[in-house]
Design brief:
heterodimer, A: 376 residues, alpha/beta, Rossmann fold, 2 domains, six-stranded mixed sheet, 11 strands, 38% helix, globular, B: 99 residues, alpha+beta, SH3 type barrels, five-stranded antiparallel sheet, 36% strand, carbon dioxide binding (chain B)
């Protein structure tokens, strides 16, 4: 209970934990999909407060972590070209490509700029008509609507020196891939609240039904996470598998219709490689044919790139929930946030960074009597 | 970059053909696009992600989340200088390699 007093409302947290304890009769493994949720869980020690046997498996929900190495290398290639202004969110700066990161590209003379919003990149394009401005468009369904609107605005404003390197990823196909993997141990999901605030919850009932897995839409605050776990465990104990929305203050069933309409206009679904995981069918968005002229891969020749992953990094297994970060031999020794081998250590939302930041440096303790892996 | 942050709308105006707002995130003020929440009004709160308002939020929830994010250092991460952070990390990494 050492972390409990740090909760904003310790009494409420205590009540939820007691309810979870009273409900649990056997071990369960629940995956939190979003990296933001992972950080809340580790920061507040929620995984350590839960009854023995309730295991939280950290999901692949960090866009920086899952952006494929090939796309990172394409970004380096474009960013290093003369005449290009390459714009990115700040957390991509130190994501390692095969040979270098964006921080180093800038040190070597590339014009790399950090923007808060994709619209900032469009403004830079407007102010620099003689330069080619490229925006690095990564992220899940939460980040895609701003990027879609920016491409739409580029066309509307007649800005022709702007393009986007697009590598968007989608949550429901990732859940599908996790559930169909032969190594899957996940029995319930805490769905990512902000993804659902855009996309709504319509895609989830069929996933829950097909895989007989409860899915609870969950926010990011400690109490949100506890409530999400409480509802998931309650369903598991009763043998139910429905979709519940535990983040109603921000998520409506239909999501944000205006954003969804823009996404449908600007993007089309494509197969996408996830770093450390591999190709997941129909798990990403790319620019649709109608917006091909704004596709940086179309505008710049970036074919023929050879990628090479670190042989030591086990982030792919971390992203699939197969190992915990501190079970990797490189964790905290040759791999730290200052000198990362993989994206899960460099990204502020990565599971390895969370474990390092909150000092989960030791290897996990011996399995308890209710160890999940013992469940047949 | 993944987390969205609640903010309060202070001013609204049309710019470059888009509905834009000035939004206060617990003291940090940023320009935000309202095209996806066109009926948002001055004084209301919304969840904002990379410069776009994506969903309305009630005031109490917004305040509570902002306090939590400030406490966790997430506001600094979202709105601080990423070059400084990257340079500091790279410098320490280089020193470790040379040492």
């Amino acid at each position: 209970m050492k972390y409990l007093e740090e909760f904003q409302n310790p009494e409420l947290a205590r009540g939820l934990l007691e309810d979870i304890r009273a409900t649990v009769t056997r071990p369960w493994a629940v995956m939190e999909v979003c990296g933001g949720q992972t950080h809340t869980i580790i920061r507040h020690g929620i995984d350590q407060l839960l009854p023995d046997g309730i295991e939280l498996i950290h999901g692949p929900g960090c866009p920086v972590c899952v952006t494929p190495l090939e796309v990172i290398d394409k970004a380096m290639e474009i960013a290093g070209r003369p005449g290009v202004i390459f714009c990115s969110f700040g957390d991509m700066l130190r994501v390692p490509g095969t040979d270098r990161d964006l921080f180093r590209v800038r040190g070597e003379g590339g014009d790399v700029r950090v923007v808060y919003s994709p619209l900032d990149a469009l403004r830079i394009a407007r102010e620099n008509p003689q330069r080619e401005v490229v925006f690095f468009g990564i992220g899940f369904e939460t980040t895609a609507p701003p990027n879609a609107m920016t491409v739409h605005q580029a066309r509307k404003q007649g800005i022709t020196n702007f393009s986007m390197l697009v590598s968007h990823v989608l949550v429901p196909p990732a859940i599908e891939a996790i559930m169909t993997s032969p190594d899957c141990r996940v029995q319930g999901f805490l769905a990512a609240g902000h993804v659902c605030s855009v996309m709504g919850t319509e895609e989830y009932p069929q996933l829950a039904e097909r895989h007989r897995v409860p899915i609870v839409v969950t926010g990011f605050e400690p109490l949100d996470i506890l409530e999400g776990i409480r509802r998931t465990v309650r369903q598991l104990e009763r043998g139910e598998h429905t979709v519940e929305n535990a983040y109603q203050r921000a998520v409506r069933p239909e999501g944000n219709p205006a954003a969804r309409a823009m996404l449908a206009d600007v993007f089309e679904v494509t197969d996408r490689a996830w770093r450390g995981i591999g190709v997941i069918p129909r798990s990403g968005w790319r620019l649709s044919e109608r917006y091909r002229e704004y596709d940086a891969e179309h505008r710049f020749d970036v074919t023929g790139i050879t990628t090479r992953e670190s042989g030591l990094c086990r982030s792919g297994e971390v992203l699939q929930g197969l190992i915990k970060p501190n079970q990797c031999e490189a964790f905290g020794t040759t791999c730290t946030p200052r000198n990362p081998l993989g994206a899960t250590m460099v990204s502020s939302e990565g599971a390895c960074a969370a474990y390092y930041l909150y000092r989960r440096l030791a290897a996990p303790s011996a399995p308890s009597a209710l160890e999940v892996s013992s469940v047949g | 970059m993944c987390l969205a942050v609640p903010g309060r709308v202070m001013e609204i105006e049309e710019r470059d053909g888009a509905r834009m707002a000035v939004v206060d995130f617990g003291g940090v003020v940023k320009e935000v696009c309202l095209e996806y929440l066109p009926d948002l009004r001055v004084g209301e709160y919304a969840i904002v992600h990379v410069g776009f308002a994506l969903q309305r939020l009630d005031e109490e929830s917004a305040r509570r989340t902002l306090e939590l994010f400030a406490e966790l250092g997430l506001l600094q991460e979202e709105f601080g200088d990423p070059w400084e952070a990257a340079a500091a990390a790279a410098a320490i990494a280089n020193a470790e390699v040379q040492g």
